[in-house]
Amino acid sequence: MTLPTVPSLVTGVDGVTAGPATGTQRFDGDGVLVPLLSADRAVLTDQLRVAASLARTADIGLYVFSPYTGTHRSIPATSALTREDERALLAWASEHVSPDRDEGTIGYTRELVGGILDCVRDTDVDSLVVPSGSDAGRFRRGLVDRLAVRADCDVITVNGRHGFDEVPSLLLAVADGPHSGLATDVAARVAADCDAWIDVLHVVDEDAPARTRERAEARVEEAVQRIGRPDSTTPWVLEADDVAGAIVEQSAYYAVTVVGAPTSSRLRQLVFGSTNRTIRSGARSVVLSARIQPTPVG
Questions:
Q1: Hey, where are the domains in the chain?
Q2: Do the two domains 31-157 and 169-291 of this chain adopt the same fold?
């Protein structure tokens, strides 16, 4: 592994405009980037483990970037990324994060966002793995929200409770919208890396008409086909009036829960709205939220 120097923080993100989420919905490309935004070791560990699983199974490069020091550490595309490599990255990351402190000004947030966006462009990565801001106050929560809509790449947010080792099974909650495809790919890669079982869940109202139930069954079957591991994947349509509550309740039985960011239906605000906050705060597992690359406007 090498430790090249990249440009440090720059001010402003002029000319970068968020657009509607579109894209191929596929997790692939040239690399995944992990910006160090939390000094909490448990947060760092989960963030790096998820990114390592994605890089290893997709055979793409892995970059760990410190926006505070302007440096990053990289591992070239390889499927042989070991746990020793992960521990070495964690040790390096622990030395390059900023200590938790109150620097929540708008200008400071813009500097961090600008520095990370520069690193995304310089490394030409296709995916960004960021920690949830819920445990670090409004400052980092706002920073992560800005990155999710401004970064020219897919964004996977590591939410919920921290700390997972063995992953015997994971829950994939699919819904309408363009982000569920990426969520399915993320779940498939983490499951393949951990040799885990996947339950594919879609929640419908208890009084949903037959046509809605048929669409739900088709949706989960499509996800099963996309995952491509029929012997270790189960489709599941669950009846419940409270979507977030149903996902939170079921998350207790899994080490990892994966969700997308639909743009319609009751799950419209799944990633950064009230539904996601409910899942993130109440889930009894690590929660991965997937959002595909937005389209720039201009």
A1: 31-157, 169-291
A2: yes
- pTM of structure: 0.81
The alpha carbon dihedral of 184, 188, 191, 197 has a sign of positive
Say how many residues make up the chain. Answer: 298
* Per-residue pLDDT tens over the stretch 30-86: 899 999 988 888 888 999 999 999 999 999 999 999 888 888 898 888 777 888 888
Query: How does DSSP classify residue 124?
Result: T
For residue range 4-29, what is the model confidence (pLDDT) as tens digits? 333 322 222 222 222 322 234 567 67
Query: Can you spell out the DSSP letters for 202-246?
Result: EEE-TT--HHHHHHHHHHHHHHHHHHT-GGGEEEEEEE-S-HHHH
**Structure-block tokens of residue 4:** 């090249």
CATH class of the domain whose range is 31-157: alpha beta
Taking phi over 0 as left and psi of -120 to 50 as alpha, with beta for the rest, 162 belongs to beta
Residues 6+ apart with CB under 8 A from 231: none
Task: State how far the Cα of 59 lies from the Cα of 30, in Å rounded to an integer.
Answer: 9
CATH architecture of 169-291: 3-Layer(aba) Sandwich (3.40)
Q: What angle do CA 58, 59, 64 make, to 5 degrees?
A: 95
For the chain, how many helices (H) and strands (E)? 8, 10
Q: Contact at 8 Å (CB) between 120 and 10?
A: no
